Amino acid sequence: MPSSGILSNLRSLTVFGSDEENQHDPGQFRFLRVLDLEDAEALKKKDHQLQSIHKLFQLKYLGLCGGVSKLPKQIQVLENLETLEISRTRIRQLLAVDGRGFGKLVHLLRTDLELPSGVGNMKELQELSMVEIYQSSTAQYVQELGKLENLRILGLKWSLKKDDNDCEGCEKRLVEALKKLGGLSLQSLCLDAGKDSSLDFLESSEPSLKLGQFKLACSHYYFPRLPTKMADAKLLACLEIGIATVQEGDLKILRGLPALIFLKLRVKASSGLVIGNQGFTSLEEFWYESGDVTLTGLKFDKGAIPKLWKLRLRCDASSVETAGLKFVLLSVVHQPSTRSIPSTTSTRILFIIFRRRSRDNSDLVSSAFRRRLSDY
């Protein structure tokens, strides 16, 4: 073990394991810039070790583990702290931000973190994910999101229900905040919805003109239709979204997104989905998930999605008709456009994922792969 004099000059420290006897008090390393305690099991029993955190005046990165349940008040004096990684902790509440603490914080990472009071004072914040808006959140707190002028990445979980206090006011403030952020630096937006919560009020909201990634993280919620103003997101490269019923107008918007490379489309119900040979000029990967429909309505026209190299289909095996599955496989596998992809770079990859086993369908997929490979 190095001498205490040498240890005191450390700039980066990662602590792991559960040996309590050899766990050092982080406060003795006064020149630390990186402190990673995410795998320090001993912290589950020694929350008090963080009480000396205020001594690390040069600290820029702090990562904590699952045993930590709350942040010490002293953490706000860390004027140089840029990244706070608490994703694997039990921390749900952040200290109120009064303008003195977290002044240089750039990345705040935690799943389901309650929206803190004074969040608008984090002027340098570029990444905030995921923050939760729930029953005790106020419209004023939500409005403060719009003050984060440098925010590039936002993850937000909406857990308010229609009968919750001031739900309508919070909805209005969130739409306004997202509009402000959209005119500033926002490039990535991830949305989640709590059980029995709805994001329908965002259907007409304006996306950021700089938005490169949009993700609807929850599997139980579907937008009634694709937000119409999504058509203005000309830089959108990655889109993950659920739509109750896909209409021709929705497909028109999707086809017209010039930068779209990855599309994950979840459909609750559809009378048919025809992918024509117009649009999707940049799309390389397409995931299609259907909960209660067969694949007979899914069709790819000749020359559709010319740059596609990976297709992933997820459906209910009990509802898939063999003829429909065979039609989809053949319409994709035997497209002449796929022959333009050099075999030395990449071959089109097709995944069929069933929620329940179906021996007949599995055999069909296997034979389709054999036919596809024999083409090269």
Automatic annotation (TrEMBL):
Which intervals hold domain Disease resistance R13L4/SHOC-2-like LRR?
A: 10-324
Q: Key word Repeat present in the record? A: yes
Report if keyword Repeat is assigned. yes
Q: Name one Pfam family in it.
A: LRR_14
Q: Which Gene3D superfamilies match?
A: Ribonuclease Inhibitor
Print the keywords alphabetically. Repeat
Extract the InterPro entries matched here.
LRR_dom_sf (IPR032675), LRR_R13L4/SHOC2-like (IPR055414)
What PANTHER family does the record point to? LEUCINE-RICH REPEAT-CONTAINING PROTEIN 57 (PTHR47186), OS09G0267800 PROTEIN (PTHR47186:SF3)
Query: What is the name of this protein?
Result: Disease resistance R13L4/SHOC-2-like LRR domain-containing protein
Give the species this sequence originates from: Panicum miliaceum (Proso millet)
